[in-house]
Amino acid sequence: MVILATPYKKIGEILVSMGYITQQSLDNALEISKTKQKLLGEILVEEHLVTWSDIADALAAQYNLPRIQELPSNIPADVINVIPKNLIDSYRIIPYKKESNNLWIATDSVNNYTQVAREIRFLTGLNPKIAVISKDVYETVYQYVFGSQIDTSQIAPILEVTKEEEPKEEVVESEEAPAVKLAKTLVENGILQNASDIHIEPSQQSVIVRYRVDGVLRKVTTFPKSMNASVVSRIKIMSSLDISEKRVPQDGKFFIKYENEQYDFRVSTMPTIYGEKVVLRILKVSSSEQKISSLGFSEYNLKRFEELINYPYGIILLTGPTGSGKSTTLVAAINEIKDVTKNIVTIEDPVEYNIDGVNQCQVNVEAGLTYARFLRSVLRQDPDIIMIGEIRDKETAQLAVEASMTGHLVLSTLHTNDAPSAISRLINLGIDPHMLGVALIGVVGQRLVRKLCNDCKKEIKINEDVSKVAATFYPHMDPIMYEGVGCRNCSEGYKGRTAINEVMIINSKIREAIYAGASDLELREFAKLEGMRTMFEDGVEKILKGITSYEEVSRVVRSA
What is the DSSP letter of 534? Predict the structure, then answer.
């Protein structure tokens, strides 16, 4: 039924006439609104009488404005920048489309829309067309557009540089040079937005800057291609790299202090057809002091992992793809077991975290210092615990096995999909199954999942996959799930990351299966019978606790 409403009809009356609430519900909500001194809409949503979408429907009817359900995910920068950021925040508006003389504006707050229209017309010379969206959609889009974006007002003055010719690279030495200012802005904004990586990528027309936040890459800004060489040169100077060499990849590092916290930047440059691409990995120095208890291990898996790292000898492997937090977990494990009575040596490529009281060695393949060569030298240094950054080849794997069989605890990483697959991977590298069965004491599979924002997550009905696992492992927990809605304090309903794990302890039964040449699938079933909870099963506990969502766990691991 179409409701013909005037701006003078109250929002509560419209909701009643639209059939969303009863008159009794409205009267009760009005009383609560007076007591709590909150807006009627907030009370109705808090009491689960309506949704923000229902409120938006009523507002659109009240002011006779168009109602839209969603906004484009990639609003052009030239459209967003038409309106100053302070007005966007003040009026809760988002410009999303420009056509001819019209500028389309979305808002969830229409009380002063006539004033907004006048001001936009005066500022832009365009004819504003205002549409209503729900509050949750507004906050999700606002966060997507601005939450991981560099304020263009910061870099606009920097980009006033001649585009006809490329700036000379010598100017990067000056602190006032545009390239120096831009590089500094990109680095500091990466820190402020808790990015793990900064990608500076030249394209045919411009240079695109993307930040990886909570494991997801997002475009944050662009700058003229004419500045790429100078910006790259500035980063190379900061990283002690050769600015004259542009034909081969280079790796370097630098560190800065920002707001009383030190950050290490690992820099990698790579030539592409449009110029040099740079990736900067951001590492917080205080993260080198992390303990296992702060990584997100469930209580069950934490006990199993602590049991492993307190063995006097043997190999412990961490498995997972790049960026799954394996190195961070290894560092936390070493922090847990380091002691003045133990000689701990690490072999890494590169050394990511500096750990007090630990002898850390950096691999340098060009100088002949490979993992294997370092490992041979380390074994002559009377170590108690050896950490190998990654096992990549047969020689390193063989030396690690031999070291563990002669009284050393060896910790390392391997790139496999799950914990049981690590065994077949090492056998495929050429390790004898009988030696491996004796040397290996445990494998930990790990993935990182985004955490739900506590400010906007909402409860939803549990699905069959989660319900089945919950009935088996977590019958004492409430059978509920949550999903992210999205608000100003998060990105698409998520904020931060945590780990999900599976800890496979190699006991006599699994050892016999290794000797017998069991497949990955068979080893997985044996491990589950012996107490291993899969990463999905571990993820279900975090789903039930409202830490993460089913979609997020399913994104990184399979349910079977």
Answer: P
Contact (Cβ atoms closer than 8 angstroms) between residue 319 and residue 326:
yes
CA distance 167 to 487: 41
Q: How far apart are CA 350 and CA 364, in angstroms?
A: 9
* Model pLDDT, residue 447: 94
Q: Tell me which H or E stretch contains 200.
A: strand 195-202
Separation of CA 539 from chain center? 17
Cis omega (within 30 of 0) for bond into 350: yes
Cβ within 8 Å of residue 215, ≥6 positions away: 196, 323, 448, 450, 497
314-319/409-414 β-pairing: parallel
- Asked if residue 503 lies in contact with residue 456, where contact means CB atoms within 8 angstroms, the answer is no
Q: Which tokens is 405 given?
A: 């069989």
Handedness of CA 183, 187, 192, 195 (dihedral sign): positive
Residue 67 has phi, psi (to 5 degrees) of -115, 125
Strands (E), 427-530: 440-452, 458-460, 481-483, 494-505
The span from the CA of 304 to the CA of 455, in Å, is 33
The per-residue pLDDT for 162 is 39
pLDDT tens, 470-521? 999 999 998 899 988 877 677 778 888 999 999 999 999 999 999 999 999 9
Give me the long-range contacts of 145-148 (CB less than 8 A, separation at least 24): 145/75, 145/80, 145/94, 146/85, 146/88, 147/193, 147/488, 147/490, 147/491, 148/193, 148/211, 148/213, 148/218, 148/220, 148/491
| DSSP 8-state class, residue 146 | I
Q: Please, which contacts does 188-193 make with residues 24 or more away whose CB atoms are closer than 8 Å?
A: 188/258, 189/150, 189/154, 189/220, 190/280, 190/282, 191/258, 191/263, 191/282, 193/147, 193/148, 193/220
pLDDT tens, position by position, 10-26: 888 888 888 888 888 88
Q: What are phi and psi of 162, to 5 degrees?
A: -60, 130
Cα distances (angstroms) measured from residue 520 to each of 115, 425, 552:
66, 10, 25
Structure-block tokens of residue 120: 């936009």
More confident residue, 140 or 305: 305
Q: Is 227 helix (H, G, I), strand (E, B) or coil?
A: helix
